[in-house]
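Researcher: We plan to redesign the surface later, but first we want a full-length starting point. Tokens attached.
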């Protein structure tokens, strides 16, 4: 008798999930789940290949751990490695990210825990001919972006449609410094991430400002690996998230500014 690979994989995941949580219960200890993220202030603070020292996403997982009775093992990894290991099931999921079709191939997303939008940062003394109210206004402008970030499908389409000039840098602070030096004309990032990156550089902050831009707010999710039994816990994650939203806990966590 032939067994379809997808059916067999589904059986293994289901069996693994039952055994995993049953063993945790019988041993009277909390289930352990491994989640990763890259250093992404103010959401995760710390160094690559280490446990995060703090941040908004860390506080989110502390709260979820208590509500789900789970011991979350958190690790900061290079972004591409984090996504790869979530895809292979070496990690059970990704702490915080936005959704796109590529990620949806190997991650199941919880309900949204937050949303934010990218702003158009530029030198405070720089004047442009356009107000950046639509993506066509970016033609002829050198756009700084952070490697691995998801800027949304509308932006991706605009890059192709208007032949936009996009230049990557490895992180937010390096992009802000490039912007300050005039190596790019604008840089795209949300306000909390930019502001936190410049907390220790007040002179840099004074030299930069932002325009609202054409971006819509993107939801932030927790990503659960489809290669891990954790996907069978999606309903419990969503129930906890709903309760946290109703109680105002999500708003409290995401409105707090962690200490650098």
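Model: Full-length starting sequence:
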């Amino acid at each position: 008798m032939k067994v379809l690979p997808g059916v067999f994989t589904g059986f293994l995941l289901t069996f693994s999930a039952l055994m995993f949580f049953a063993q945790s219960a019988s041993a009277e200890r909390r289930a352990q789940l491994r989640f990763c993220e890259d250093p992404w202030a103010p959401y995760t603070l710390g160094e690559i290949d280490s446990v995060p020292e703090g941040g908004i996403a860390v506080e989110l997982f502390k709260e979820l751990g208590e509500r789900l009775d789970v011991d979350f093992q958190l690790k900061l990894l290079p972004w591409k490695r984090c996504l790869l290991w979530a895809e292979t099931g070496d990690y059970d999921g990704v702490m915080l990210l936005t959704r796109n079709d590529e990620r949806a191939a190997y991650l199941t997303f919880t309900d949204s825990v937050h949303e934010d939008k990218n702003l158009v940062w530029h030198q405070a003394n720089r004047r442009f001919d356009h107000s950046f109210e639509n993506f066509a206004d970016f033609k002829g402008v050198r756009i700084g972006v952070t490697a691995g970030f998801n800027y949304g499908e509308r932006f991706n389409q605009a890059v192709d449609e208007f032949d936009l000039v996009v230049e990557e840098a490895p992180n937010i602070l390096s992009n802000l410094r490039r912007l300050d030096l005039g190596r790019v004309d604008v840089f795209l990032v949300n306000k909390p991430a930019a502001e936190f990156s410049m907390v220790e550089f007040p002179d840099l902050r004074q030299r930069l400002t932002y325009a609202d831009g054409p971006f819509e707010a993107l939801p932030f999710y927790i990503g659960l690996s489809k290669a891990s039994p954790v996907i069978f816990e999606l309903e419990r994650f969503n129930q906890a998230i709903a309760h946290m939203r109703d109680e105002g806990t999500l708003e409290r966590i995401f409105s707090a500014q962690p200490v650098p």
